[in-house]
Specification:
By secondary structure, this protein is of the alpha+beta class. The protein has helices spanning 5-8, 37-40, 44-53, 81-92, 141-148, 170-184, 194-200, 211-217, 227-232, and strands spanning 18-21, 57-61, 97-103, 106-113, 123-124, 127-132, 135-138, 204-205, 208-209. The strands form three sheets. Strands 1-2-4-3 form a four-stranded mixed beta sheet. A three-stranded antiparallel beta sheet has the order 5-6-7. The protein has a two-stranded antiparallel ribbon with strand order 8-9.
């Protein structure tokens, strides 16, 4: 997406998924000559990995990091932008967008980073990175597990072919509407049509019911409504 220097100068690093670096000369692409791992991460690839792992962002080279982000200019990848994007794709498997902007003869390079693929972590030198303030750190085991778990299909959300409204336990649905109305402090919710309620709760889509409905509200289910249904529909 196209962006101007004036628009960039209004953005904040902590709020707008963006990072500003002066990077006037000799900014490292992949760790540079540093030995310490924390220092090696402060490079173009490290920043791209962290942004991608957090659903995307921008890295701006040639602007100071404090507002209003004065332009100082950068010669990073000058006349080699195509080669830069090719190398990043070769190493990380993602396509970034690189844009050069100019102010009073000073060059900026804006690297727009897309989100990582679903269920996949990006790594720099074997480490999955994320941003914390102005630093890059390794993800915790819990954070890694959360991302890898995205690959698991949500079976309950799949359409259950053949299941109709008539197959559902009306008393169970009425009880669900009562509890939801109480939680939302909206008594009128109990009077909404069943189809509207189920659609609002993502249990009915395009006139078809999903497997969550089969397990929670079908007639003949020994416990058609209970704690499990509350968790499933996020009351």
């Amino acid at each position: 997406m196209e962006i101007t220097i004036a628009e960039l100068q209004k953005l904040r690093e902590s709020e707008d998924h963006i990072e500003f670096k002066e990077a006037k000369h000799n900014y490292p692409f992949a760790g540079g000559k540093h030995v310490d791992l924390k220092d090696r991460r402060r490079c173009v690839l490290g920043c791209i990995v962290a942004f991608a792992n957090e659903k995307g962002g921008r890295s701006v080279l040639g602007m100071v990091d404090h507002m209003p982000h004065a332009v100082v200019g950068s010669d990073f990848a000058e006349k080699e932008v195509g080669e830069l994007t090719d190398e990043i794709y070769e190493r990380l498997g993602i396509r970034i967008e690189a844009t050069e902007l100019y102010e009073d003869g000073k060059r900026l390079l804006v690297l727009s980073v897309p989100s990582r693929p679903v269920g996949r972590l990006l790594r720099f030198e074997g480490v999955p990175l994320m941003r914390t303030g102005e630093s890059l750190r390794a993800m915790s085991d819990a954070e890694i597990f959360r991302i890898l778990s995205e690959q698991e299909p949500d079976f309950s959300a799949k359409i259950c072919e053949g299941l109709t409204i008539e197959d559902l336990d009306k008393e169970a649905i009425a009880e669900m509407k009562t509890q939801y109305a109480r939680k939302q402090e909206n008594p009128l919710f109990q009077n909404y049509p069943d189809e509207q309620v189920l659609s609002d709760l993502d249990l009915l889509k395009d006139g078809k019911l999903n497997y969550a409905m089969r397990h929670l509200f079908c007639l003949g289910n020994p416990k058609p409504y209970g704690n499990i249904s509350l968790r499933t529909i996020s009351l």
